[in-house]
Amino acid sequence: MKTRITELLNIDYPIFQGGMAWVADGDLAGAVSKAGGLGIIGGGNAPKEVVKANIDKIKSLTDKPFGVNIMLLSPFVEDIVDLVIEEGVKVVTTGAGNPSKYMTRFHDAGITVIPVVPSVALAKRMEKIGADAVIAEGMEAGGHIGKLTTMTLVRQVAAAVSIPVIAAGGIADGEGVAAGFMLGAEAVQVGTRFVVAKESNAHPKYKEKILKARDIDTTISAQHFGHAVRAIKNQLTRDFEQAEKDAFKQENPDLEIFEQMGAGALAKAVVH
After folding, report:
1. In sequence order, what are the residues at sequence separation of 6 or more whose Cβ sits closer than 8 angstroms to the Cβ of residue 179?
2. In this structure, are residues 201 and 23 in contact, taking their beta carbons and an 8 Å threshold?
3. pLDDT computed for residue 240 by the predictor
4. If you write DSSP's letter for every residue of 88-157 in order, what string do you get?
5. How crowded is residue 249: how many other Cβ atoms within 10 Å of its Cβ?
6. Which residues of the chain have pLDDT under 50?
7. Burial per residue of 54-80, b for 16 or more beta-carbon CB atoms within 10 angstroms, e otherwise
8. What pLDDT is stored for residue 260 in this prediction?
9. Which of 79, 86, 181, 221 is surrounded by the fewest CB atoms within 10 Å?
10. Nearest Cα to 88, choosing from 57, 60, 65?
11. Whole-model pTM?
12. Beta pairing partners, 230
């Protein structure tokens, strides 16, 4: 299937593997790229040497295109920007921040820049500063989310911008892919489905939890204090919910407690 995205990125299938922190490493991204999609290494909060090792790994597995997701709030963002340019990475997706300050450097290096956006306004802003495409991610996604559903968001973004749109959020099968295209997208991004792939380094118990999850088994944490996150219900999400309830009762709640509760939790849950 050919779309503007497959032509732009020189990939066989209009399917992105989401750049999930601690899961989307060189092995998983390499397998996806080798199969004809776009594998994306998740930069997350990882330091330069970790991302470099994953880039080296994917290069050893395939010569097909791959990408790196850069979380712009990462303390190592400047190092990672330098790294992807030095390593000749051809595609960068961005999240958790504004990539405008890096856009010229990316384009001068021949990098295709695709920000993740949660709203029409931000999609239009990204097009204006030179983004090559946007990933419109609805709140059905796992991890950090916005406030609009995939169905609501993708159709409006596709109508509002002239650059290609990639649909994301709750897409895990052929029906979801078809729905994304019906909404005006020219590719889809799939995240959680790839967590359970054999090439994924996620802990077997984590994979089992995903495979056994029902439609009502996820919850959204940090809606009031911090950045909203969708996850499968667990002890941490219950503790977070209770901490939010307690904070509402306080005149000057200590918001640092929420950062402390979440610090390192994803890595612990996924790979340990």
Report:
1. 151, 167, 171
2. yes
3. 74
4. T--EEEEESS-THHHHHHHHHTT-EEEEEESSHHHHHHHHHTT-S-EEEE-TTSSEE--SS-HHHHHHHH
5. 7
6. none
7. bbebbeebbebbbbbbbbbebebbeeb
8. 61
9. 86
10. 65
11. 0.87
12. 143, 220
Residue that the structure tokens 């979440």 belong to: 262
Q: Which helix (H) or strand (E) holds 9?
A: helix 4-9
> For 212, what's the count of Cα atoms within 13 Å in the CB-facing half-sphere?
7
For residue 38, what is the DSSP state? B
Element (H, E) at 242: helix 235-248
Start-to-end CA span in the chain (Å): 38
DSSP state of 18: P
DSSP class of residue 159 equals: H
Q: Please report the pLDDT score of residue 5 as a whole number.
A: 97
**Backbone φ, ψ for residue 232 (5° rounding):** -70, 135
The pLDDT assigned to 222 comes to 76
Alpha-carbon dihedral sign for residues 135, 140, 145, 150: positive
Between strands 218-221 and 229-232, the pairing is antiparallel
- 4-195, CATH topology level: TIM Barrel (3.20.20)
- SS3 call for 166: strand
Under 8 Å between Cβ of 27 and 56: no
Domain definitions of the chain by residue range = 4-195, 204-271
Q: How far apart are CA 216 and CA 219, in angstroms?
A: 8
Query: Which two structure tokens, joined as six digits, stand for 208?
Result: 């089992």
Q: How far apart are CA 97 and CA 68, in angstroms?
A: 15
**pLDDT score for 144:** 84
DSSP string, 193-216: HHHTSTT--S-HHHHHHHHH--TT
Task: Please report the pLDDT score of residue 220 as a whole number.
Answer: 85
Residues 135/191, Cβ–Cβ less than 8 Å: no
Greatest CA separation found in the chain? 57
